[in-house]
Amino acid sequence: MSSLFCRRPVVGYVVSVKLPRVYEGKPTPRRYGVEKTFLYNQYTRMLEASNNSPIIFLQHTNFSAQRLQKLRRDITDANTKFSVSLSSPTPAPVEIGAPTLAVMRTSLFGVALRDFAPLDADKAAQIAGLVKGGFAVLTLPSFNPPQLDAILRALDRSVPPKKPGVEQPPPMKPQDDPSFVPGRKMQRVKPVLTPELTVMGALIERQVFGMEDVRDVSKLPTLDTLRAQIVGLLSSPAVQLAAILSEASGGKLARTLEGLKKGLEDSQGAETSS
């Protein structure tokens, strides 16, 4: 996976899966340069691995390179704490693969998404409609709902959701500044931008999930826990039957049936005498 941030700014556009326009005299299919070919192949491999490695789609705004680095460290720390919590009851530590965060080139990702055969046009269009702005993806090494929940909570802590009704303050005009002197050049002050990060959806086992569905999936138990619960449900009738047969072998069932028979005969005799 590519670096979390690029040396040059990445312009975010809408992800498009529409067929490209054909120009006269241009070769088809389009040929890319070395860098774009590398990214196209990288995005294709990421989509191919989505059957086992979930992809979380993120929309980001007002992120600097330093702020993206901090976000990556927060994700790594959350994954490390999650791994330690799993290994604490066991003598040997449990190794959990680390998630990877990458800023995407929307145009190339749209091409890779359109050309990825296992996804039909409807699913590709669903994914393309999730993000409309700065685009990043978070890939997990495997489908592990508790790990996903830990990472999502780390994202919320690192970049708290924007409170409703809070707008970015507009830049101050020179004439509104009390220290403004006509004819003197004003000192340039960089605006303080508040970064925003939103989980827009996910591709898990090649199924598209919306924003709320991703949160619901993260609350599920692990596959091993679900398998154990299913085995317990299937084995419980057999355990109950074995208990009944065990009681029958000891004569308890026979005595119970004999008592029930005697009770029925007494009730019938009472009705006859009356």
Key phrases:
274 residues; alpha+beta; five-stranded antiparallel beta sheet; 5 strands; 46% helix; elongated; disordered N terminus
Summarize this entry quickly:
This protein is of the alpha+beta class.
What does this molecule look like?
46% of the residues lie in helices and 11% in strands. It has eight helices and five strands. The protein has helices spanning 34-48, 65-87, 106-115, 121-128, 145-158, 211-218, 223-249, 252-273, and strands at residues 55-61, 100-103, 134-139, 196-204, 207-209. A five-stranded antiparallel sheet has the order 2-3-1-4-5, sandwiched between helices. The N and C termini lie far apart (90 Å).
Adjacency order of strands in the biggest sheet: 2-3-1-4-5
The helix content, as a percent range, equals 40-55%
Please report the distance between the alpha carbons of the first and last residues. Answer: 90 Å
**Compute the gyration radius: what is it?**
31 Å
Poorly predicted runs of 5 or more residues:
1-10
Give me the secondary-structure topology.
Blueprint: H1 34-48, E1 55-61, H2 65-87, E2 100-103, H3 106-115, H4 121-128, E3 134-139, H5 145-158, E4 196-204, E5 207-209, H6 211-218, H7 223-249, H8 252-273
Antiparallel strand pairs: 1-3, 1-4, 2-3, 4-5
